[in-house]
Amino acid sequence: MSAHTLTLVSPPDDVDTVHALLETVWADAAHVSPRDRFSFETALIELASNVLRHGNTGSGVTCALRLEVSAVSIDARLSDTGGTVVELLAASADPASDGAVDSREMPDALSESGRGIALIQALVDELEYTRDGDVNRWHIVRTLRS
After folding, report:
1. pLDDT tens-digit readout, 9-45
2. SS3 of residue 83 by DSSP
3. HSE toward the beta carbon, residue 129, CA cutoff 13 A
């Protein structure tokens, strides 16, 4: 198993910092197929982008990211100091959202936003969210398929 960590402070850090980390991760994980890499990377970048873009309540966002790659899965844990998931979803999705992350439904085809959580869920096998005091904790896992 290989593990990689990253701390982001936004601003000035952005998703390019996460892309750079993933380049290092993939260099150490030759057994991960291109399909698994693409799916996991898309899900993680979507999650990080949403947190950095919508989680900033005026004082910036600090994120800690830990990635682990094993023979059977890719696992990411992201904690952040941004707004709650209810605030995040209110800023980026259907105003009627209740903050739950267990729905895989895409919004109406004409909606301009609100696809992030559904996209992440479509690309990974597990998506978990908890709020611990002033910290959001996100966990995504993709089981390797090939």
Report:
1. 999 999 999 999 999 999 999 999 999 999 999 999 9
2. coil
3. 18
